[in-house]
Amino acid sequence: MKTLLLIDGNALMHRAYHALPPLTTKKGVPTNIVYGFFNMIYKAMQDFQPEYMAICFDTPAKTFRQKLHKEYQSHRPDLKDDFRIQIPILKDLIDLVPLYRAEQDGLEADDIIGTLSKKIDGDVKTLILTGDKDIMQLVNSHVFVLTPEIGFSKTKLYDKEAVKEKLGIEPERIPDYKALVGDPSDNYKGAGGIGPKTALTLLAQFGTVENMLEHIDEIKNERQRETIRKNVKEIELSKELAVIVTNAKVDFSLEKAEFNGFSEELKVKLEELEMNSLLRKFYDQKPPIAKKEIKKPVKKVKTPQEQIDLF
Fold this sequence. Notes:
The protein is an alpha/beta fold. The protein has 15 helices and 6 strands. α1 (9-19) packs across α2 (32-48) and α8 crosses α12 (232-242).
């Protein structure tokens, strides 16, 4: 089975920036994002040898979520200059690889990834490389999530079973879970006062928040019932914010995403940026012979607090 690797560009940029100390060329050009980003995708390429690759980014334009909820992500700090400077450098390198790159005003990278994952049928294994746990809602029988571990030397794989072990719910129920507990990182509150344990109990009973809202009177606990009743609009809004778009208009085909190795133009640019370790990896080392097998992750029961930490 062939493999498509979808990469969350913004998530990996932030992970690289915060995981690595400041790195610069002799001319003072910051490069820690570039270095960390390409190390993470190279690790995934080594392990899974994807025939197809696509990298998705946010844009500076307002998203539909920010229009729905003006406080959405409003508390996030502005990018620092040494971060902002590296974005066009990174995108230029991606185009020189060359790799398929997609972004669209009004949508987040998650939405582009969600759309691309739905354009591919079960004959192609789809791996999503990200540090963002929200994307786990896309996991199904042929879509998996890869998250980089500390130091970029390892990745953790999530299939449907692993997602349920981690969160206590199926991947497709993640938006319902977040509709109830909210998401502090994206700045929406959900039901307000409904914690992870209660949310899981309610979803076990009703399946979806839509079904729950149609049967509020069947919620046995009076405090929970009144909390839900008072926060219907917030729950509905939170669900809409949490759901990843999967039907955006994106011009994509596997042929456009085919990976055919690293170009000589990229080599020149990496030399200018003094990326000697990347040059050795990309141009001096032979690729591994066999793909890494996707194995079932080791089971580990997560506590409610660890479930909160995911969001």
